Amino acid sequence: MSRTGPFVTIALIIAAILPEMRGETPEMLPEPAAIASAVPAPLYRDPVYDGAADPVVVWNAPQRVWNIFYTQRRARLNLPGVEWGHGTEIGVAESRNEGITWVYKGRLNLEHPSPGGSFWAPDCVRDDAGKYHLFVTFVPGPAATHRNYGGERHILQYSSDDLSKWKFERRVPVTSDYCIDPTLCRHPDGSWRMWFKDEYHRDETRVVASRDLRQWKAIAAPGVSRLYGEGPKVFKFGDHFWMLKDPNRGLDVYRSDDLENWTYQGKILDKPGWRNDDASVGKHADVVVCGDRAYIIYLVEPGMMVVPPKEGIQPLVGRRSALQAAQLELQDGSLICDRNKLFRIRLTPPDAR
Questions:
Q1: 26 dihedral zone (left: phi>0; alpha: psi -120 to 50; beta)
Q2: 318 and 218 part of one domain
Q3: Most Cβ neighbours (<10 Å): which of 13, 60, 68, 263?
Q4: What mean pLDDT do residues 69-84 have?
């Protein structure tokens, strides 16, 4: 069955009932052809555990394809507490058609620094010599030892020439033993900055800097440090730098001219969407900027907030998660996102922009 068939059917049904709800006339609704060519919703579901989360989108230059690396939550396993959110590896999906469809390709082969343990929330960048650097949260201890989301978390660094074979480089010297969710961006002075959530220091967003992606040092916390949010994502789009943070109520947006000083811009993805599996707030996201276009790939947990656990085990509908895509736009100096707007994703390689 094609990926567009179910989407067309669902979208047409919704289109039939939305005019009265949203004050739209039939003439304002999209044509079936536009619906058929739009990005699928959801964009991707993990076929093994149905728990795709925390994505980063990477251009695989050696193979000339796009990859998504993501936390592979074990949502299909009936485990107590949040054990299903541990024992996780980094899943890999691949797209050969500009990001429209994605195929599961397995997991990253990452060396575990200690027995058991969980990998969460990767980020990946490519240096000037063409080497890839993966930064990922590692939670020590077998999954069965975790009944909550407490315990130490470290940020580990791996390197690769081909995104297939990975070498463990180091545990990044961040600001405590309880740091998660790294995101990297190039500073205007040519150095690298890494932002992350420090759960030991009041859940603040902290930052370290490096000239060579090897030696790291902590620098003054950014102006967004004391405002709660997980999964920071920093990127440049248009004339400004942007940071997204996930406070579990949609994504907070901050703008900066220099990666030093930040101004709060409001929220995006804080209202549920009407597309399939999109009826909850958007969470931990990645952004791919392709010239004058920017796409956000975000996590949705459709049933987690509305389905209570039973005898200590959360039902599958409350565990599973999916990845969605939407287009970001600039309007009067602000970043906006209409998650219901139909669009065709077109991811273009960095060397073709």
A1: alpha
A2: yes
A3: 68
A4: 96
